Amino acid sequence: MNVTSTDVGTGSILDGRYRLDETIGEGGMARVYRAEDMALQRTVAIKVMRGPTEGSPTPDRVRSETTLLASLGHPSLVTLYDAHISTTKPSYLVMEYVEGKTLRDRLDEGPLPADEVAALAVDLAEALHVVHEKAVVHRDIKPSNILLWPSPLPDRSYRAKLTDFGIAYLLDATRVTSPGTVIGTAAYLAPEQVRGEKPSPAADIYGLGLVLLEALTGRRAFAESVGHEAIVARLTVSPTIPPSLPATWRALLAAMTASNPERRPTALQVALAATELREPRPSTGEVLAAFMDPVDTAPHSIGTEPVSVAPAAPHTPQPQSPASTPAATDPTRTQLLDPGQPAAPARHRQPPHRRAGILALAAVVVALALAVAIGVGIAVSAGSQPEPAPSLPVVDQPLGTHLQDLLDEVTP
């Protein structure tokens, strides 16, 4: 006995692994559930294909979508985890579950700030670039097929993911729809889709342009027409772009929604243009400051052990080339030495503890010298014979020389 999609519903367990918990979407070809992958204990989205009724996807078409999804990879594309294709029971796809809302839900609350729309445009255009590079056309770009998940960055509220490739078309494969069939949501169809022409990436650009226009204005394009009139309207007129929008936005949207597909930009060009449309980002100074250590004003300890420096070998000055002259005169530049030129001897500084000891010794010697001088002066004034000049203790040069000079000055 064959099991159809009507036998599958909330609470069903597929292949002993996936438990269907809640219906989160439904279309003409499939029903989408929030489900639990009991093997990996994670939440997933499962798209259960409808049974073999008229107009439903054939197994070949399901395999086509599966192959398509598995070949695509981008942060703004929903990831395919697993696929089960069968002719005897419902086929289903297991996909990444995105916690959040659709762009349709968000637009029901009103338009988005221009900078937020530009950020979403970058995400979606990059995703379409990846799709188009695989010779794939999504064919149904609309707000309900764009999932929004909260952005962790402070400069934007959402990041976007493009979903529902159920009616995607592989350009290099046999066409799986009847010639002249219009597939897509009427409000976001490109003129060539209305005419039933072969789909192309330019159709996705047109649909994305209408989505961005609605996100900026809060009003759907061609809203003045309804039903069949709204579909036919795009064959004769371009969507109304309000003059209140910045000129840069008007230019991009006009190009994306041009009647002639060949005049529309590519997805990559849209991504680059939308990047430039974004307002200047907040300064990262505060963010970087969190990683910077405060200025260390405490004295650094230096080793007290003296460092021995070998004397430099005699050096015969070499004539400088013009190229080396700036480096020699500019102390901020790194100087290069010729291979045969020895390095200049490093200047040897006395460690602070040793310098302190020498200064203390110098103070003692000076005090001793003054005492001797005073004693000699008293002896001379008393008529006594002068004593031989005292000798100083051995002190490292050049301090010893200076002390001797001082003693000579005060000794009569």
Structural classification: alpha+beta
Indicate the multimeric state.
single chain
Radius of gyration: 42 Å
Largest sheet: 6 strands, antiparallel
Ends apart, CA distance between termini: 130 Å
Strand neighbour order, sheet with most strands: 1-2-3-4-6-5
From the spread of the alpha carbons, the general shape counts as: elongated
The percentage helix is 25-40%
The CATH class of the largest domain: Mainly Alpha
Number of domains: 3
Annotated CATH homologous superfamily of the largest domain: Transferase(Phosphotransferase) domain 1
Q: Beta-strand percentage?
A: 5-15%
Write the layout of secondary structure elements.
Layout: E1 13-14, E2 18-26, E3 30-37, E4 42-49, H1 59-71, E5 80-84, E6 92-96, E7 101-102, H2 103-107, H3 114-133, E8 136-137, E9 146-150, E10 158-162, E11 169-170, H4 191-194, H5 201-217, H6 228-233, H7 247-256, H8 267-277, H9 285-289, H10 325-329, H11 352-381, H12 399-410
Antiparallel strand pairs: 1-2, 2-3, 3-4, 4-6, 5-6, 7-9, 8-11, 9-10
Helix pairs in contact: 3-5, 3-8, 5-7, 7-8, 11-12
Explain this structure.
- Strand 1 (13-14) and strand 2 form a beta hairpin.
- Helix 3 (114-133) packs antiparallel against helix 5 and helix 7 (247-256) packs antiparallel against helix 8 (267-277).
- Helices cover 33% and strands 13% of the residues.
- It folds into three domains: 1-97, Phosphorylase Kinase, domain 1 (2-Layer Sandwich), CATH 3.30.200.20; 104-280, Transferase(Phosphotransferase), domain 1, CATH 1.10.510.10; 364-410, no CATH class.
- The chain has a six-stranded antiparallel β-sheet, with helices on one face. Strands 7-9-10 form a three-stranded antiparallel β-sheet. A two-stranded antiparallel ribbon has the order 8-11.
- With 412 residues, the protein is of the alpha+beta class.
- It is elongated.
